[in-house]
Amino acid sequence: MSEIMMHTDVERILVSAEEIDRITTKIAAKIDEDYKNADGKLVLLGILKGSVVFMGDLMKKITLPVEIDFMKVSSYGAGTTTTGRIKIHLDLCRSDLSECNILIVEDIIDSGKTLSYLTEYLRINGARSVKTCTLLDKPSRREVDFVSDYVGASIPDEFVVGYGLDYAEKYRALPYVGILKREVYEKN
Ligand code: PRP
After folding, report:
1. What is the pTM assigned to this prediction?
2. Ligand 1 centroid to 50 CA: how many Å?
3. d(CA 98, CA 186)
4. Residue to probe by mutation, ligand 1, list 82, 107, 161, most atoms within 8 Å of CB
5. Is omega for the bond preceding 49 within 30 degrees of 0, making it cis?
6. How does pLDDT run across 129-179, given as a tens digit for each residue?
7. Active site positions, annotated
């Protein structure tokens, strides 16, 4: 990605479009390998909204048959502990969970509360298996003990946008992950 194409609100590119392409190819190949003999359906479960760009690219590179589904959740309340308090805004409506190998797809893991809660929630509700996949991981921000099965890139604790990630709903369509200029979010 050339500097010329960089958004003016972006300080620098952290994960380029080319690097993201390499990451999705590698993860898709690993998923193909890991699930090729699995009983049941492979269901990619995107967590809205940030995951949609990554999931769209990832599913095109998986050669096994996949179904897709979505949930929308949010953390709420300050000072939350353990798995945090997660509100489900859009639930998974399937009657075949016991046949589903759910692979939750996220754009980023921060505190770990969202994925920690969701894996437990889906297991309790009878999914055949539950694994997680994230494009980005910020291990230094972890508040609960959580390790994802597939991680594209571990990144430092920077304010990142693009490739699904937003600031105030902007920048999700950028083809790369970039660090947002401090002045953009400090002026509000
Ligand atoms: C982000 C991200 C994860 C969650 C990770 O979603 O997409 O779902 O936060 O944070 P955690 O590890 O601390 O739980 P966000 O709430 O920003 O919503 P969005 O995807 O709609 O932008």
Report:
1. 0.94
2. 7
3. 47
4. 107
5. yes
6. 999 999 999 999 999 999 999 999 999 999 999 999 999 999 999 999 999
7. 110
Please tell me the predicted confidence (pLDDT) of residue 91.
96
Cα 74 to averaged position of ligand 1 atoms, centre (Å):
7
The answer to whether the Cα torsion of 149, 163, 64, 124 is positive or negative is positive
100 pLDDT above the threshold of 70: yes
| CA dist., res. 124 & res. 169, Å (int) | 32
The whole-angstrom separation of Cα 142 and Cα 184 is: 25
pLDDT given at position 81: 47
Cα distance between residue 54 and residue 23, in whole Å: 10
Hey, which CATH number is domain 3-181, 3.30.870.10, 3.40.50.2020, 1.20.210.10, 3.40.50.300?
A: 3.40.50.2020
